[in-house]
TrEMBL record:
Residues 169-191 have a biased composition (Basic and acidic residues). This is Uncharacterized protein. Residues 157-200 are annotated as: Disordered. It comes from the Bacteria.
Amino acid sequence: MALMDVLLDEMRDLYSAENQLVKALPKMAKGAVDPAVKSLLKNHLEETKGQVQRLRDAFGILGKKPTGQHCNGMEGLLEEGQDALEKDEEGANKDLGICGASSRVEHYEIAGYTTAIGMAKALGLKDVVNLLNQNLAEEVAAAKAIFAGTKPLLRAALTEGDPTENEEESKPKSGKEKYSDKKSKEDEKKASASVSGKSR
């Protein structure tokens, strides 16, 4: 596989990721409690729409179509975001869950754009690099804004009830939570031999 093919795969992955995010951000904004978090997510939705267009423009420069690959990584991250929306949390705690999911999304995108930019630079595709850099700059700014937004939420969460109380043990688990718990234990079991050095 040529480097151009790898770049196209990376860009198609990003294109799918951004399109999935365009669909998910309105739900996340609607589920947020804090007006600042709602505003942040709504603003990033508009940025994301612009990022989709820049990716289309980059594909146009290359004479290639942007579709053809589904981003499973983003799908998984957005499922985690949906889990944060569905949890029985309120106020700042709910918003912290949404911000945590949003932060993971942004860092995933930052990694993707950084990789694609490196490949495009190596191929001498200056116009493509410029478009991808614009998207990367917005993702970095969004990640910083999310992080900054968590600071007042953390302070608020400490004043909402007993912050050390652990309700997790007393609540019945949903089917999804039971499945996740089972998978987590399987992951731990599979990794334990390697972690403890037994695989050598």
